[in-house]
Amino acid sequence: MAEEELVSENSLRQVKIVLCGHSGSGKTNFSLRLMHNHFKEDTYPTVGASFMLKNISIDDIEFKIIMIDIAGDERYKSLVKMYNRDSSATVFMYDSTNELGVDGTLDLFKYVFSDNTPDKPIFVVGNKSDIPSNAVAVEKAQNFCQENGFKHFLSSAKTGENVENIVKEIMKVSLGVD
Ligand SMILES: Nc1nc2c(ncn2[C@@H]2O[C@H](COP(=O)(O)OP(=O)(O)OP(=O)(O)O)[C@@H](O)[C@H]2O)c(=O)[nH]1
Ligand SMILES: [Mg+2]
Known about the structure:
The protein has 178 residues and is of the alpha/beta class. The protein contains six helices and six strands; from the N terminus they run H-E-H-E-E-H-E-H-E-H-E-H. It has helices at residues 3-12, 27-36, 77-84, 99-112, 135-148, 163-175; strands at 14-21, 49-58, 61-70, 89-95, 122-127, 151-155.
């Protein structure tokens, strides 16, 4: 097989997901749960960006996921903009138990798309569904998704609830598979 064919075949089967959102929303634990079925109570804040790879099968076809988990600290927000450019999909995560956090994540969205509209699937995920949610936070996120035509999900990196389902849904939408 020619090199270009090999590269294009591989890239067809590869989904690059950018995971961003306010600090403490649980991005690193969401990735850990997905990649290693593991959860940590005491994760350190991420510095910069961290990359994880995993193969996942959908309808018996194997796809490679590249998950780019970007630190939520303000000073790294330009990294979100940079990695968002060539992602297959971007996930904006917020802590569903915290009213202030969701504002941080929605502000990040506005910053990333301050001079262009999204040209890829966008997902908003409220994480920590194992704890009673903050109704205002979840309503804000749901309204934002409704206005923009984005999908909204709730997950728990702690129990694993919905983590794999969300990622499979992202992959299906990104790959155009039903
Ligand atoms: N109860 C509960 N706690 C969670 C969940 N996900 C993450 N946490 C906790 O929330 C804290 C922050 O989690 P991280 O995964 O480090 O958050 P992050 O979004 O990667 O944070 P930054 O790297 O600073 O951007 C840790 O104490 C985690 O144990 C969850 O689903 N449920
Ligand atoms: Mg982190």
